[in-house]
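job 3f2a | input accepted
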Amino acid sequence: MQEEAVFTYSDLVQVVGAQNLRLDANFAARGVSTDTRTLQPNSIFVALKGENFDGHDHVENAFLKGASAAVVSEEFYNQHSRNKQLIKAPQSPLNTLGALAWYHRRRYEIPVIAIAGAAGKTSTKEIVAHVLSRKFNVLKTAANYNNQIGTPLTLLELTQEHSAAVVEIGTNQPGEIEILAAMVQPTHGLITNIGKEHLEQLIDIDGVETEERALFDYLHDHSGICFVNVDDERLAKYAHQVGRAITFGLTREADITLSVSYDGELNPKLSIVKGAFTFNATMQTPGIAAALNATCAVAIAWALGMNAAEVRHQLQSYQMPASHGYGRMNVVTLTLGTILNDTYNANPDSMQLALQTLHHHPSARKIAVLGDMLELGPTSEEEHMQVLDSACAVSDLVILYGEEFRRAADHISHSNIVWCGTINGCVNEVRGCVDADSVILVKGSRGMAMENVVLQLTSGN
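job 3f2a | predicted structure (461 res):
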């Protein structure tokens, strides 16, 4: 990702302090990069360090490719005292990357919508950005780059051409949402839901709520607007606690309440009646999750002054971005049946939503191919058992892959459960029992690579 943010010497003094600069007073750079493979001349290179890489090993190459300066650790800075092109990170290069993004974000007075939540962040971000693009020139987070690297790189892409931004922020450890909210400085914020995510670090659902709530805390403290999903039991109470709030939902009365039904292909048929903001729209993206995501988008669009015709047009024209093997409830129609490719990721809540979609699908024979849900910590066995119970209730056949589901299957006696030790085994089980009136849901955590099931089924069709 390459940005065009301009930083002068005086800008950098405000970001890191003059004592941390070894630059000429007339210094100016355009763009910030963390990857020498895509680095453009005259940009600032940030030498990030991770478990399996160290950007400091590439500083020399960055300068050969035309970098104007490099953000480095204190140790590296001291060891290269003769180099006049270095910026010492007061804490870490990662922290300084965030500080550069924070500084650049402050140059723009536009609506900035932050989207957090346990599940559905990326899908919600995509549809919100699409709906708003009818009226605004929208910057949005690329893919799911929602962490302390991806978020600042998104903010650094802001230009004078943008009239709104939709920024996805994620977490896998306590305190991360607080850091990202302070960096993004949102004017509006939405938490999709509170569910069981990253429990290895967040411990339990109370820990998840505390972590995600940090977005609302920031907005409350800075007079921003919180979009509150009143269908979520844990979020509903914040409608009366966060100051400026707009409520939305499908099942409860709210500022924006949508009613939804589904056509024969499970595409949501949405209806809202709110004075002049009244319309019906049929989406092209199937599934229950798509309806929930659309509700978020409608609430934000209404708050930002869009009219019914604009929103209706965008909802009806929205299609999920093309996937690279994995998908978010992408429908693939084959001679062997219909595949619901929801292999992008999985946690207990998104699994349950996907199984609801499978349940409501009109096909006669329903097959669930499920891979393990990762990062659930000590609750993993219980969560896999609950999902497996739900899968057995709505499926004619449940095909499992992964050690967590194997252990769960040992505790549940259903004749329609098959565990496979390989992806090929899952594919063979599907091929052995499907017909043209079958629907196959394929889902699992990103690390399980369940898209390979879909790729083999489609290539062998």
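job 3f2a | The chain is about 35% helix and 20% strand.
job 3f2a | closed
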